[in-house]
Structure formats: C-alpha cells, structure tokens
C-alpha cells in the first residue's frame, strides 16, 4: 500500500530528541518514534536510584550537586 | 501550581530519582505542564551520582528519562548575558545564575530544592519533605 506522507518542520532541538527516542524505542523512522511516543504513557523512574533503607536529608541531597564557587 | 511552564532544577530531579519526594513523583508524572531542564543539570546529576557510587549504566537510564520527559534548555549568548546580570544583581553563583536565566528565557517558573533561589521572582523553593 502506498502511504501518503507529509513534511513537518521541527526545531533542531526537537529533532535531536526524536533521534534519542528512535534509539530508545529501537525504531528506524521518525514516524515510528512519534507513533510510539503518543502511545506510550509517561513512565516512572521515581526512586530508580534509591538505595534500600537509605533516606537522604536535603543537605545530603544538595551536597556536591552544584559548585557554588566562581572561577574568577 | 498553576504555571504552564516549569523549569526543574537539578535538585528536583535528584530528589525524584532517589525517591525522596512522593509529591514530586505525583507532580512530574501527572502534570500536563511543559517541563524544562537545563543541559547543565545533566553535568551536575551525572557528576553527583557517579561520585555517589552509582553505576554509569543506571545513571544513563535515569538521565535518559529526564531528557525524554522535559525540554532541554541549551545555553546561548543571551542567556549567558542575562545570567551575568542576575549574578551581579542577586549574588547567585555561576551555575545558579545560568539556571535562573535559562528558566526566565523560557518563560518558566523555576522549581528547586536549593535555598539560594529563595525570594527570587518566578522561583519556587520546595522543602525536601514537600
């Protein structure tokens, strides 16, 4: 079957995200990536790196996360 | 929260990934609001997590989730100039001011756990337990 296609314009940043999605979904075309994207509900990664039994304080969370010093 | 564009700071993503704030989980996973993350957060989160002993594979997986679920805000000349002005005006450190200017450039409200942003316009500072 001859599929009708069209052209859309996206920002370079969006194209880069679609490229990432293609790899992530292991699909070959942008069409497949977009189709998969609209079908897949936003999943969860909450606590994916949590360590069993370990609770963090705000201070611990922020420790070393950001360098608060200036170079000059 | 009623803002339609939210800029999530590295601290917010870290609390989410480590499972330290159930309200953040509910918010991030259910909101229809447009989420933004600075490219600088990728550096900070990777560095912090690797330093904390997490494996590269699991860090990559977590950051991939961040990339897929939010718009990545890149740096440009305008953001850097605005950040420099904000830093001089408010005393914010380099990365803080770049994050804040990035949020402003994207017309988004900054959501953070970092007290250094407290009192700034369009910045919501959460407690870890919130």
UniProtKB/TrEMBL annotation, chain A:
Source species, domain of life: Archaea
Record protein name field: Antitoxin
Organism annotation: Candidatus Iainarchaeum sp
Lineage of the organism: Archaea, Candidatus Iainarchaeota, Candidatus Iainarchaeia, Candidatus Iainarchaeales, Candidatus Iainarchaeaceae
TrEMBL record, chain B:
Signal peptide, first to last residue: none
Top-level lineage group: Archaea
Family matches, as InterPro entries: PIN-like_dom_sf, PIN_dom
PIN domain mapped to chain residues: 7-118
Entries under Gene3D superfamilies matching the protein: 5'-nuclease
Taxonomic lineage: Archaea, Candidatus Iainarchaeota, Candidatus Iainarchaeia, Candidatus Iainarchaeales, Candidatus Iainarchaeaceae
Identification of the protein by name: PIN domain-containing protein
Source organism per UniProt: Candidatus Iainarchaeum sp
